[in-house]
Amino acid sequence: MKNKLFLFLFFLTVFFIDVKAQNSGTLSDIEFLSGHWEATRNGNLVEAFWTEPEGDNIVGVVRIIGDGRAVLYEIFAIEMTDTGLEIKVKHFRPGLIGVEEKDEFDHYTFLESSNGRALFQKQGEDVRISYEMRPENKFAVAVGTPANGEWKFEDFWLFSPLD
User: Fold this and answer.
1) Which of 14, 52, 127, 136 is deepest in the core (most CB within 10 A)?
2) Is residue 6 over pLDDT 90?
3) Cα(82)–Cα(59) distance, integer angstroms
């Protein structure tokens, strides 16, 4: 009887550890975004580059060009932390003038993933970001907000590969 109880508790513990690990995300949940991508939004060219996962991170850079001039730059750090997968984003105007204060950044925590899709929650706001591979090798970044008790997502950027 003691052996059965021990085995039951052991498997229950392993199950909960496994569930916790799944809910915290891993770099493999989002490695599909690695590469060189291009999109347009509001008449602006959006070029993005994300590195392959290495160590505990993926780094990304986005530049937005309008009328042949820089409009905005974004730097992404996607990191594995003790609490799970997180995305940190800083924005810069031309001349590398920071949009956020020196020690501030947009911060997103991992919620879930499935085949070619990862979902993150923006800290301090009712905003979610979905990264998703689409047919024909398209890659979408969609912004979600709550509406009538559900999350409504709209594509923000729809990228095509450049390489």
Assistant:
1) 127
2) no
3) 18
Instruction: Give the pLDDT score at 73.
Output: 98
Contact 37, 139 (CB under 8 A): yes
Greatest alpha-carbon pair distance for the chain in Å reads 75
Quick one: tokens of 14?
A: 């392993």
Q: How many CB atoms lie within 10 A of CB 105?
A: 18
Q: In 10 A of CB 149, how many CB atoms?
A: 5
- pTM over 0.90? The answer is no
The phi, psi pair for 16, rounded to 5°, reads -70, -35
Cβ distance 139 to 33 under 8 Å?
yes
Consecutive H or E run containing 14: helix 2-24
**Region for 19 from its dihedrals, namely left if φ exceeds 0, alpha if ψ lies in -120 to 50, beta otherwise:** alpha
Instruction: Look at residues 163, 134, 154 and name the one whose alpha carbon lies nearest to residue 47.
Output: 163
pLDDT tens sequence across 115-152:
899 999 999 999 999 999 999 999 999 999 999 999 99
- Cβ atoms of 87 and 74 closer than 8 Å: no
Q: What is the three-class DSSP state of 135? A: helix
Residue 77's CB is within 10 A of a number of other CB atoms, namely 14
